[in-house]
From TrEMBL:
VOC domain sequence ranges: 7-121
Full protein name: Glyoxalase
Lineage: Bacteria, Bacillati, Bacillota, Bacilli, Bacillales
PROSITE patterns in UniProt: VOC
Source species of the chain: Cerasibacillus terrae
Signal peptide: none
Domain of life: Bacteria
Amino acid sequence: MEFHYEKLDHVQLAAPANSEETARQFYRDLLGFKEIEKPDPLRKNGGVWFRCGNVELHIGIEDPFSPAKKAHPAIRVKHLSAMKLYLDEQGYFYTVDKNLPNAERFYLSDPFGNRIEFLEWR
């Protein structure tokens, strides 16, 4: 093959119509992502885009909407235990999974029911 993959550019998750402000409250206000501007030709589709470090998430509007309950992005986190403490303090529920050797990880659902994995390798 004459091509090669460089990196994952972004992950898109679905959300119901008119849920952009809810997405902002979760991804920006709770998780600390920065909202980034969508290109003009894509704004008419609704949704909102976020970035934090090298992680970029696009929240796209889907009608009819169906959340990703099994398929999910997995985001590496440094100091995962501090993130869990922060989520505890904010009253957010997550599910710890100890089935991946040499990793600490948990799953969190966004307000739309999409599954997101956060993990730290030991």
